[in-house]
Amino acid sequence: MAWIHGWLGLLAGWILFAMFLTGTASYFRPEITQWMQPEQPANRVSAAAAAQSAVRYLSRVGAGDEQWYIYLPDDRTAVTRVFAIPGADAKPAKRPRPPELELDPRSGEPIHARETRGGEHFYRFHFQLQLPHPWGRWLAGLCAMFMLGAIVSGVVTHKRIFADFFTLRWHKGQRSWLDAHNVSAVLALPYHAMITYTGLMTLVLMYMPWPIAANYRQPADFGKEAYGYVFDNKASGRAAPLVAVAPLIADAERRLGQHAQRVVIRFPGDAAATVAVASGGASGLNARGGTVTYSGATGRVTAADIGAGPALSTAGVMLGLHTAQFAAPALRWLLFALGLTGAAMVGTGLLLWTAARRRPNVAPFFGLRLVERLNIAAIAALPIGMASYLLANRLIPAAAAGRADAEVATMFYAWGGAALLQLARPAKRAWCELFALGALLFGAIPLVNAATTERGFFASLRAGDGLFVGFDVAMLAIAALLAAAAWSAGRERQVKTRRKVGELAHV
Amino acid sequence: MLMQRGQMPRRRVLIRPAALAMLARCITALLGGYAATAALVSLVSRLLPVSRAEATAWGMITSFLVYAVIGLWCFHEPKLVRVAALIWGVAALAGGVVWLIGARA
Hints:
The complex is a heterodimer. Chain A is an alpha+beta fold. Chain A has helices spanning about 1-25, 30-35, 45-60, 120-130, 135-155, 160-165, 175-185, 190-200, 205, 210-215, 220-225, 245-255, 310-325, 330-355, 365-380, 380-395, 405-420, 425-450, 455-465, 465-490, 500-505; strands at about 65-70, 80-85, 100-105, 260-265, 275-280, 290-295, 300-305. In chain B, helix 1 (about 15-45) packs antiparallel against helix 2 and helix 1 packs parallel to helix 3 (about 80-100). Chain B is mainly α. Chain B starts with 16 loop residues before the first helix and ends with a helix.
């Protein structure tokens, strides 16, 4: 079991580290998006009013559309996000995905903020890995399965799991890495197991659709029964004005006992129009929430999916636990910290692999050098890429064309560039210098923000803008963490390693 | 011949039998394990006496745990023949039964 734990961790470790780090950042996905659009003030409009203003805009520009998706704003999200799927008789659109629009919740008009992928980029990267669909999701799923296997085999490997929890021997070379790996893994083991399993569950319909095939002749029927998706109704062809949606939102929130998060309007302006109002994970553990469907012509309830059975509720709660939209700020920060312990567990595991194989006064073999360099590229260079993404948001002109893609490209060029340039330095120096560069870049973010926007640290403090103040503090904290890592990596250290450690390090 | 077999210089082979066996084990664990998992959870969810949406969800929820345990067992069991026979056998058997029963009405 021990050797399989090592192989699972080694093969998937670099990708898992990136998934952990960007996924942990995604706990603050709406906040990062808000920070990356400093022109857009925080939302103060109710969900019902935002839905109504969005429908007013969509009715004007999107008559004859087949379907509108409206994602409602709340106190964490400043804008209303809408997707429109054009009708069948409309000119065939060449785009593979319907264009996403961001609307001002108050006016319903498109917002005038800089174009950016925002926190959505970290979120998408952490399970799609910037690869073409569906390969990124399959690779992420494979790595998550390796992680699950590594967790199970890791627990089996640990006969002394309780004692290891209380063991941390600093500055003892390989033994310290082993202890650090054990502490970060065992301390947050319930979290690691939960986040890995629920992560797999978020894409279970793609990874494991076979139970559906075994039970349903028409796979779409499962979505209908389980989640209340109704996609098979047809437009009647008779025009009928859409009822006011604001009262429907209020009614749905009363029936569900939760905040409405999503409105799907099918065949707007047709007599067969439907308005489906869904709650999500923001007001309960179950991310699936419930859905109330109304007739768009009369406003009467046509279907209500309020509660599900134990299995579907379990699946919904798993989804909710993973995305943690229910978490209030304190719990969100705790989950953020736990996510970082996940990255630490993977990172220390990777470092342990090299520490256990390095012999004094012996030139490292090829595999050891390869793993060492890949470790540097994954662990020390990724923060540089993430900081560059945030800096690019402030430094690329707000009105520049294609700036959202340029921001994303900046992250990968910075990450890739750092990963390549470190090859020119001795490994020990490379660790130290890349961490230091990361610390500098994160430390620069509050300064660049203050220089390029009106919402610098002191201005935000005066305005009582908790989000922007918190963001600056978080950036400085990350910079301090990376600086400490650089300092620790750069120190000359005389380490006495003992033979015996090799056995403990399950290698 | 004059040269004895033991004195011949050892030929470098491209892939050693042990590596081939490990490759077969990995493929069995990854692909065979997935197939066995899919077949098993499909069969259980088909036979569970609860509503089909619930049964389907139970199958999907448990699938990753089943896959992890099956995959690890493939590396725990020393005999490759036993691993391959059991994993691919379960996949074929359970998959065949699911196919024969057919979807719920």
